Amino acid sequence: MRDAVIVDAVRTPIGKRNGSLAGVHPADLSAHVLKALPERTGIDPGLVDDVVWGCVGQVGDQANNIGRSGVLAAGWPVSVPATTVDRQCGSSQQALHFAAAGVIAGHYDVAVAGGVESMSRVPMGTSRQSGFPFGQTVLDRFAVDTFNQGLGAEMIAAQWDLSRRRLDEYAARSHEKAAQAAKSGAFDSQIVPVPGAASADEGIRIGTTADTLASLKTPFRADGVIHAGNASQISDGAGALLVTTSEHARKLGLKPIARIHTAVTVGDDPVIMLTGPIPATAKVLERSGLAIAGIGAFEVNEAFAPIPLAWIAETGADPALVNPAGGAIALGHPLGASGAVLTARLINHMRDNDIRYGLQTMCEGGGMANATIFELL
């Protein structure tokens, strides 16, 4: 029976908005991580059957199938195809699911999954500026004027009784954990520096405390709890994952890091929008036959601080195992790349700490979520 394994997982440093990566075209950011895979593994890129690439803002510099542009910019053979996926923030996690499914089904022997987002060059929401993407029928169904992630985060904080102080303490801890991980070299094996631009993640703010965050304004509600300091950063970056089967890896002389054990997707309420990781986790655990106590590390994307905190409350996961190297509040959230970035962080952490099972989940625009369980090999 065919399986799907990840042989290598790489990412660029995550750049701040208008930071060191802003001058790099998204095709070249994509090419940078794509080129790193054969350089690190020795695989012939001509063996790649498909590149499945995530990207949310598929306009401007990221239009016209940015995955294919990345393949061509990498200098790979023109015979290597690519497609670009949009499942909002979970785009490259979904790209991994599609690549794994193709490998297991026998459509591919070797695939690459990943994604890119340059939020400096293609600002968030650009694709909505020239149209009305939801349609009046959808808005009428849910009795709203629009869908807003910030308001959804405020709703979650209210529903789970999460105070601003608690959210700010969580955010400060994210920076502390990320700083510790960076200092210890935990990211060194996964980051591929971009020459002349960036060699390390730019978003970490050493010394951040709940007190320093207390003065920030809450833009979504005047009396709210969500602000820039306890939300994910606007970022630039790319990540890539080399996927094949265990058998094919042996034939190629490659040593996989982890097996994609179970992968699921769910839909949830599009108004509160960001609670999808809770049912996605329940579904992936049920499908896998594993219990939450059997998972040794979790990556729960920190789009906003209430999301992982509500997730912990509902799942009963050990908070000490959640986002052990910090999350998007400290490290950034380059939308279409974030799924691959989280996977790179998670499976490298599993390998470094001999953790058998890891679980990754991410909320997504429209009220969706992906969840993936990885098994260390």
Automatic annotation (TrEMBL):
Stored Pfam families = Thiolase_C, Thiolase_N
Which GO-annotated molecular functions does the record name?
acyltransferase activity
Which EC number(s) does the record attach to this protein? 2.3.1.-
* Stored PROSITE patterns: THIOLASE_2
Concerning InterPro entries, the annotation shows: Thiolase (IPR002155), Thiolase-like (IPR016039), Thiolase_C (IPR020617), Thiolase_CS (IPR020613), Thiolase_N (IPR020616)
Ordered alphabetically, the record's keywords are: Acyltransferase, Transferase
Q: Where's the Thiolase N-terminal domain?
A: 5-246
The family database entries (Gene3D superfamilies) matched by this protein are listed as: 3.40.47.10
Asked whether the UniProt record includes Acyltransferase among its keywords, one would answer: yes
Residue limits of the Thiolase C-terminal domain?
A: 254-375
Q: Which family does it belong to?
A: Belongs to the thiolase-like superfamily. Thiolase family.
UniProt xrefs under NCBIfam families: AcCoA-C-Actrans
Q: What is this protein identified as?
A: Thiolase family protein
Annotated organism of origin: Rhodococcus parequi
Instruction: Tell me the lineage of the source organism.
Output: Bacteria, Bacillati, Actinomycetota, Actinomycetes, Mycobacteriales
